[in-house]
Amino acid sequence: MLDFKQIKMMIKPVVDGLDHQMINDIPLFTDLNPSAENLALYFFDEIDGRVVKTTANRIAVKRCTIYETDRSSATYSR
């Protein structure tokens, strides 16, 4: 079980790494299109890695959805 405060602390550095930046200038996305699909995969991998490490493999991320608009989104899951 994770407290929402712990989850928020794991997500914050991932979000902050992209916030107020030109995503195309971030090394990962200089060759990879920063589409909603690729951003969903990026957030999934980054946050899942932190969750799995923090919980010693007891908890993992199930899916990640990135919204472009209220009616347009991309979801990545494993």
By DSSP (H or I, 4+ residues per run), the number of helices equals 3
CATH topology call: Tetrahydropterin Synthase, Chain A
**Given the helix and strand composition, which structural class is it?**
alpha+beta
Rough outline: globular
Roughly what is the average pLDDT, rounded to an integer? 95
Strand-residue fraction? 15-25%
Provide the number of structural domains.
1
Order of helices and strands: HHHEE
Radius of gyration: 13 Å
Going by CATH, the homologous superfamily would be 6-pyruvoyl tetrahydropterin synthase/QueD
Extract low-pLDDT stretches: none
Helix content: 40-55%
- Going by CATH, the architecture would be 2-Layer Sandwich
Notes on the protein architecture:
The protein is α+β, with helices and mostly antiparallel strands. It has one domain (4-77): Tetrahydropterin Synthase, Chain A (2-Layer Sandwich), CATH 3.30.479.10. Helices cover 46% and strands 17% of the residues. It has 3 helices and 2 strands. The protein has helices at 4-16, 28-31, 36-54, and strands at residues 63-69, 72-77. It has a two-stranded antiparallel ribbon. Strand 1 and strand 2 form a beta hairpin. Helix 1 packs across helix 3 (36-54). The longest helix has 19 residues, at 36-54. The chain is globular. 9% of the residues are buried. The mean pLDDT is 95.
